[in-house]
Amino acid sequence: MQDPIAALIMRLAAPYRVFVVIAGAVLIHLSLGTYHTFGNMLPYMGSYMRNYTSADIELEQLIWIPTFQGCFPFAMVIGGFLSNRLGPRFATAIGCAMMSAGVFLSYWTIKHSFWAFLVTYGFFFGFGQGIAYVIAVATVINWAPDKVGLVTGIVAAGFGISSSIFAPIQTKMVNPWNYAPNQQGYFTQKELLDRVPGVFFTLSIVYAIMQTVGLLVICDPPSEAVTKRHEHGSDSLEDADDDEEGRGKAVPQEWSMTTSEMLKSSTFYVLFVALFCCSFYGNTYYNLYKTYGETFIDDDMFLAVAFSIGSVANACARIGWGWLTDKTSFQACELRTQPHSISGLF
Known about the structure:
This is Major facilitator superfamily (MFS) profile domain-containing protein. Keywords: Membrane, Transmembrane, Transmembrane helix, Transport. This protein has helices at residues 4-10, 14-32, 38-53, 64-69, 72-86, 88-112, 114-143, 148-174, 190-193, 196-215, 223-231, 243-247, 259-263, 266-293, 300-327, 330-344. By secondary structure, the chain is mainly alpha-helical. It has a single domain, classed as Up-down Bundle (Growth Hormone, Chain: A). The radius of gyration is 22 Å and the shape is globular.
Protein backbone atom coordinates (compact mmCIF):
# COMPACT_ATOMS: atom_id res chain seq x y z
CA MET A 1 0.00 0.00 0.00
CA GLN A 2 1.39 3.38 -1.01
CA ASP A 3 2.12 5.87 1.75
CA PRO A 4 -0.14 8.91 1.13
CA ILE A 5 2.48 11.28 2.57
CA ALA A 6 5.13 9.91 0.20
CA ALA A 7 2.75 10.39 -2.72
CA LEU A 8 2.08 13.95 -1.58
CA ILE A 9 5.80 14.70 -1.31
CA MET A 10 6.32 13.40 -4.85
CA ARG A 11 3.88 16.04 -6.09
CA LEU A 12 6.27 18.77 -4.96
CA ALA A 13 8.87 20.24 -7.28
CA ALA A 14 11.94 18.00 -7.38
CA PRO A 15 14.30 20.15 -5.24
CA TYR A 16 11.77 20.42 -2.42
CA ARG A 17 11.14 16.71 -1.91
CA VAL A 18 14.40 15.96 -0.14
CA PHE A 19 14.16 19.26 1.74
CA VAL A 20 10.83 18.27 3.31
CA VAL A 21 12.08 14.86 4.46
CA ILE A 22 15.32 16.37 5.80
CA ALA A 23 13.31 18.95 7.76
CA GLY A 24 11.31 16.20 9.46
CA ALA A 25 14.41 14.14 10.24
CA VAL A 26 16.23 17.19 11.63
CA LEU A 27 13.26 18.00 13.85
CA ILE A 28 13.41 14.49 15.31
CA HIS A 29 17.18 14.66 15.72
CA LEU A 30 16.91 18.00 17.53
CA SER A 31 14.98 16.17 20.26
CA LEU A 32 17.23 13.11 20.25
CA GLY A 33 20.34 15.29 20.46
CA THR A 34 19.42 16.45 23.95
CA TYR A 35 21.37 13.34 24.92
CA HIS A 36 24.37 15.69 24.84
CA THR A 37 22.86 17.99 27.48
CA PHE A 38 23.40 15.43 30.22
CA GLY A 39 26.56 17.22 31.35
CA ASN A 40 24.65 20.48 31.64
CA MET A 41 22.00 18.84 33.83
CA LEU A 42 24.39 16.69 35.86
CA PRO A 43 25.05 19.19 38.71
CA TYR A 44 21.31 19.91 39.00
CA MET A 45 20.29 16.25 39.03
CA GLY A 46 23.03 15.26 41.46
CA SER A 47 22.20 18.14 43.79
CA TYR A 48 18.48 17.37 43.77
CA MET A 49 18.90 13.66 44.43
CA ARG A 50 21.47 14.27 47.15
CA ASN A 51 19.11 16.64 48.97
CA TYR A 52 15.75 14.94 48.37
CA THR A 53 16.18 11.36 47.14
CA SER A 54 19.17 9.95 49.02
CA ALA A 55 21.93 11.73 50.93
CA ASP A 56 24.37 9.01 49.82
CA ILE A 57 24.16 9.88 46.12
CA GLU A 58 27.34 11.31 44.60
CA LEU A 59 27.82 13.03 41.26
CA GLU A 60 30.10 10.17 40.23
CA GLN A 61 27.23 7.67 40.48
CA LEU A 62 25.15 9.56 37.94
CA ILE A 63 27.73 8.85 35.25
CA TRP A 64 26.04 5.44 35.03
CA ILE A 65 23.12 7.21 33.35
CA PRO A 66 24.93 8.18 30.11
CA THR A 67 26.51 4.73 30.26
CA PHE A 68 23.03 3.23 29.98
CA GLN A 69 22.07 5.84 27.39
CA GLY A 70 25.00 4.45 25.44
CA CYS A 71 22.90 1.40 24.61
CA PHE A 72 21.62 3.32 21.60
CA PRO A 73 24.07 1.73 19.10
CA PHE A 74 22.58 -1.67 19.90
CA ALA A 75 19.10 -0.20 19.55
CA MET A 76 20.03 0.91 16.04
CA VAL A 77 20.12 -2.73 14.98
CA ILE A 78 16.61 -3.20 16.35
CA GLY A 79 15.56 0.03 14.65
CA GLY A 80 16.59 -1.32 11.26
CA PHE A 81 14.69 -4.55 11.90
CA LEU A 82 11.55 -2.67 12.99
CA SER A 83 11.74 -0.38 9.97
CA ASN A 84 11.80 -3.35 7.60
CA ARG A 85 8.85 -4.97 9.34
CA LEU A 86 6.68 -1.98 10.29
CA GLY A 87 7.77 0.80 7.97
CA PRO A 88 9.99 3.78 8.84
CA ARG A 89 7.32 6.06 10.31
CA PHE A 90 5.84 3.57 12.76
CA ALA A 91 9.25 2.20 13.75
CA THR A 92 10.59 5.72 14.34
CA ALA A 93 7.47 6.52 16.35
CA ILE A 94 8.25 3.60 18.68
CA GLY A 95 11.73 4.98 19.32
CA CYS A 96 10.51 8.54 19.79
CA ALA A 97 7.76 7.43 22.16
CA MET A 98 10.21 5.42 24.23
CA MET A 99 12.68 8.31 24.43
CA SER A 100 10.05 10.95 25.33
CA ALA A 101 8.39 8.58 27.81
CA GLY A 102 11.75 8.08 29.50
CA VAL A 103 12.14 11.83 29.98
CA PHE A 104 8.51 12.20 31.08
CA LEU A 105 8.73 9.41 33.67
CA SER A 106 11.96 10.90 35.01
CA TYR A 107 9.82 13.66 36.52
CA TRP A 108 8.72 11.05 39.08
CA THR A 109 11.65 8.65 39.23
CA ILE A 110 14.18 11.34 40.15
CA LYS A 111 12.13 11.94 43.30
CA HIS A 112 12.11 8.32 44.42
CA SER A 113 15.09 6.20 43.43
CA PHE A 114 18.44 6.39 41.69
CA TRP A 115 17.82 2.98 40.12
CA ALA A 116 14.40 3.96 38.77
CA PHE A 117 15.89 7.17 37.39
CA LEU A 118 18.67 5.12 35.80
CA VAL A 119 16.09 3.03 33.93
CA THR A 120 13.94 5.93 32.70
CA TYR A 121 16.56 8.57 31.88
CA GLY A 122 19.25 6.04 31.05
CA PHE A 123 17.87 2.93 29.37
CA PHE A 124 14.52 4.24 28.06
CA PHE A 125 16.08 7.41 26.69
CA GLY A 126 19.06 5.67 25.08
CA PHE A 127 17.16 2.75 23.61
CA GLY A 128 14.44 4.90 22.11
CA GLN A 129 17.01 7.34 20.79
CA GLY A 130 18.92 4.61 18.99
CA ILE A 131 15.83 3.22 17.28
CA ALA A 132 14.68 6.62 16.02
CA TYR A 133 18.15 7.92 15.13
CA VAL A 134 19.09 5.33 12.55
CA ILE A 135 15.71 5.17 10.80
CA ALA A 136 15.49 8.94 10.34
CA VAL A 137 18.94 8.96 8.74
CA ALA A 138 18.19 5.94 6.53
CA THR A 139 14.96 7.53 5.31
CA VAL A 140 16.74 10.68 4.17
CA ILE A 141 19.36 8.57 2.37
CA ASN A 142 16.59 6.77 0.48
CA TRP A 143 15.37 10.11 -0.87
CA ALA A 144 18.84 11.35 -1.87
CA PRO A 145 21.14 8.36 -2.44
CA ASP A 146 23.56 10.43 -4.54
CA LYS A 147 24.19 12.93 -1.74
CA VAL A 148 24.59 10.55 1.18
CA GLY A 149 27.37 12.49 2.88
CA LEU A 150 25.67 15.87 2.65
CA VAL A 151 22.15 14.84 3.69
CA THR A 152 23.32 12.65 6.56
CA GLY A 153 25.61 15.49 7.63
CA ILE A 154 22.68 17.89 7.74
CA VAL A 155 20.54 15.49 9.78
CA ALA A 156 23.45 14.73 12.11
CA ALA A 157 23.97 18.49 12.47
CA GLY A 158 20.47 18.67 13.92
CA PHE A 159 21.57 16.11 16.51
CA GLY A 160 24.75 18.08 17.20
CA ILE A 161 23.24 21.54 17.44
CA SER A 162 20.42 20.39 19.72
CA SER A 163 22.45 20.97 22.87
CA SER A 164 23.24 24.55 21.82
CA ILE A 165 19.50 25.21 21.92
CA PHE A 166 18.42 23.19 24.93
CA ALA A 167 21.39 23.60 27.31
CA PRO A 168 20.76 27.35 27.85
CA ILE A 169 17.02 26.65 28.09
CA GLN A 170 17.61 24.05 30.80
CA THR A 171 19.90 26.39 32.70
CA LYS A 172 17.39 29.24 32.45
CA MET A 173 14.59 26.98 33.66
CA VAL A 174 16.51 25.59 36.64
CA ASN A 175 18.91 28.38 37.60
CA PRO A 176 17.62 31.77 36.37
CA TRP A 177 19.46 33.40 39.30
CA ASN A 178 22.80 32.04 38.05
CA TYR A 179 23.65 30.59 41.47
CA ALA A 180 27.03 28.93 41.88
CA PRO A 181 27.45 25.46 43.46
CA ASN A 182 29.32 24.90 46.71
CA GLN A 183 32.91 23.70 46.89
CA GLN A 184 31.80 20.08 46.51
CA GLY A 185 30.00 20.90 43.25
CA TYR A 186 26.44 20.71 44.61
CA PHE A 187 23.68 23.30 44.57
CA THR A 188 21.88 23.76 47.88
CA GLN A 189 19.44 26.58 47.10
CA LYS A 190 15.89 25.28 47.67
CA GLU A 191 14.30 27.44 44.98
CA LEU A 192 16.72 25.98 42.43
CA LEU A 193 16.33 22.36 43.53
CA ASP A 194 12.54 22.55 43.43
CA ARG A 195 12.71 23.38 39.73
CA VAL A 196 14.68 20.29 38.68
CA PRO A 197 11.89 17.67 38.27
CA GLY A 198 9.72 20.07 36.29
CA VAL A 199 12.35 20.35 33.58
CA PHE A 200 11.81 16.70 32.62
CA PHE A 201 8.04 17.13 32.51
CA THR A 202 8.11 20.28 30.38
CA LEU A 203 10.82 19.21 27.96
CA SER A 204 9.28 15.77 27.40
CA ILE A 205 6.18 17.51 26.05
CA VAL A 206 8.31 19.74 23.82
CA TYR A 207 10.19 16.70 22.52
CA ALA A 208 6.96 14.81 21.82
CA ILE A 209 5.54 17.72 19.82
CA MET A 210 8.72 18.07 17.76
CA GLN A 211 8.81 14.35 17.09
CA THR A 212 5.14 14.16 16.11
CA VAL A 213 5.60 16.89 13.50
CA GLY A 214 8.78 15.29 12.17
CA LEU A 215 7.19 11.84 11.94
CA LEU A 216 4.65 13.08 9.40
CA VAL A 217 7.27 13.07 6.63
CA ILE A 218 9.37 10.08 7.73
CA CYS A 219 8.59 7.72 4.87
CA ASP A 220 10.35 5.96 2.02
CA PRO A 221 9.85 7.20 -1.55
CA PRO A 222 7.17 5.41 -3.59
CA SER A 223 8.43 2.22 -5.19
CA GLU A 224 7.57 3.43 -8.69
CA ALA A 225 9.75 6.51 -8.18
CA VAL A 226 12.69 4.34 -7.16
CA THR A 227 12.13 2.09 -10.18
CA LYS A 228 11.99 5.10 -12.47
CA ARG A 229 15.20 6.42 -10.97
CA HIS A 230 17.04 3.17 -11.74
CA GLU A 231 15.62 2.92 -15.24
CA HIS A 232 16.93 6.39 -16.05
CA GLY A 233 20.28 5.78 -14.45
CA SER A 234 19.80 8.59 -11.91
CA ASP A 235 20.99 8.31 -8.35
CA SER A 236 18.64 10.99 -7.03
CA LEU A 237 14.90 11.35 -6.82
CA GLU A 238 15.38 14.97 -7.76
CA ASP A 239 16.37 13.76 -11.23
CA ALA A 240 13.77 11.04 -11.54
CA ASP A 241 11.44 13.26 -13.57
CA ASP A 242 14.07 14.26 -16.10
CA ASP A 243 13.55 11.65 -18.82
CA GLU A 244 15.82 13.17 -21.42
CA GLU A 245 18.80 13.48 -19.13
CA GLY A 246 18.45 9.95 -17.81
CA ARG A 247 18.02 7.93 -21.00
CA GLY A 248 21.64 7.91 -22.06
CA LYS A 249 23.05 6.78 -18.74
CA ALA A 250 23.90 3.27 -17.71
CA VAL A 251 21.77 1.66 -15.05
CA PRO A 252 23.73 1.74 -11.77
CA GLN A 253 24.58 -1.55 -10.17
CA GLU A 254 23.51 -1.78 -6.54
CA TRP A 255 25.73 -3.67 -4.15
CA SER A 256 25.28 -4.54 -0.50
CA MET A 257 26.69 -6.96 2.05
CA THR A 258 24.96 -9.52 4.19
CA THR A 259 25.46 -9.45 7.96
CA SER A 260 27.85 -12.40 7.85
CA GLU A 261 29.89 -10.76 5.08
CA MET A 262 30.07 -7.56 7.07
CA LEU A 263 31.34 -9.36 10.17
CA LYS A 264 34.09 -10.96 8.07
CA SER A 265 35.24 -7.59 6.73
CA SER A 266 38.30 -5.96 8.32
CA THR A 267 36.88 -2.55 7.37
CA PHE A 268 33.94 -3.12 9.70
CA TYR A 269 36.22 -3.64 12.70
CA VAL A 270 38.43 -0.67 11.82
CA LEU A 271 35.36 1.57 11.64
CA PHE A 272 33.98 0.07 14.86
CA VAL A 273 37.18 0.82 16.78
CA ALA A 274 37.47 4.30 15.25
CA LEU A 275 33.91 5.20 16.25
CA PHE A 276 34.41 3.78 19.74
CA CYS A 277 37.52 5.90 20.30
CA CYS A 278 35.91 9.05 18.92
CA SER A 279 32.79 8.54 21.02
CA PHE A 280 34.85 7.91 24.14
CA TYR A 281 36.57 11.28 24.27
CA GLY A 282 33.53 13.09 22.86
CA ASN A 283 31.19 11.76 25.53
CA THR A 284 33.73 12.51 28.26
CA TYR A 285 33.57 16.15 27.20
CA TYR A 286 29.77 16.23 26.88
CA ASN A 287 29.15 14.62 30.25
CA LEU A 288 31.77 16.20 32.49
CA TYR A 289 32.53 19.66 31.08
CA LYS A 290 30.26 21.51 33.51
CA THR A 291 31.13 19.54 36.62
CA TYR A 292 34.79 20.21 35.91
CA GLY A 293 34.28 23.82 34.84
CA GLU A 294 32.41 24.73 38.00
CA THR A 295 35.47 23.86 40.09
CA PHE A 296 37.01 27.17 39.00
CA ILE A 297 34.22 29.09 37.17
CA ASP A 298 31.30 30.40 39.24
CA ASP A 299 29.13 31.47 36.30
CA ASP A 300 26.63 28.69 35.57
CA MET A 301 25.07 30.39 32.54
CA PHE A 302 28.48 31.14 31.05
CA LEU A 303 29.29 27.42 31.04
CA ALA A 304 25.99 26.61 29.32
CA VAL A 305 26.61 29.26 26.64
CA ALA A 306 30.21 28.14 26.13
CA PHE A 307 28.99 24.59 25.61
CA SER A 308 26.39 25.88 23.14
CA ILE A 309 29.07 27.58 21.06
CA GLY A 310 31.01 24.33 20.93
CA SER A 311 27.85 22.52 19.82
CA VAL A 312 27.34 24.96 16.95
CA ALA A 313 30.89 24.26 15.79
CA ASN A 314 30.15 20.54 16.09
CA ALA A 315 27.04 20.88 13.92
CA CYS A 316 28.85 22.89 11.24
CA ALA A 317 31.62 20.30 11.13
CA ARG A 318 29.08 17.51 10.58
CA ILE A 319 27.73 19.23 7.47
CA GLY A 320 31.22 20.02 6.22
CA TRP A 321 32.31 16.44 6.84
CA GLY A 322 29.38 15.09 4.84
CA TRP A 323 30.03 17.44 1.93
CA LEU A 324 33.72 16.53 1.84
CA THR A 325 32.91 12.83 1.98
CA ASP A 326 30.74 13.17 -1.13
CA LYS A 327 33.50 15.08 -2.92
CA THR A 328 36.45 12.90 -1.84
CA SER A 329 36.20 9.77 0.30
CA PHE A 330 35.69 8.72 3.90
CA GLN A 331 39.36 7.82 4.28
CA ALA A 332 40.54 11.20 2.98
CA CYS A 333 38.26 13.08 5.37
CA GLU A 334 39.34 10.89 8.27
CA LEU A 335 43.01 11.63 7.61
CA ARG A 336 42.26 15.36 7.62
CA THR A 337 40.19 15.46 10.79
CA GLN A 338 41.91 13.04 13.15
CA PRO A 339 45.04 15.19 13.68
CA HIS A 340 42.80 18.11 14.65
CA SER A 341 40.81 15.93 17.06
CA ILE A 342 43.94 14.59 18.74
CA SER A 343 45.55 18.03 19.01
CA GLY A 344 42.37 19.33 20.65
CA LEU A 345 42.97 16.99 23.60
CA PHE A 346 46.18 18.82 24.39
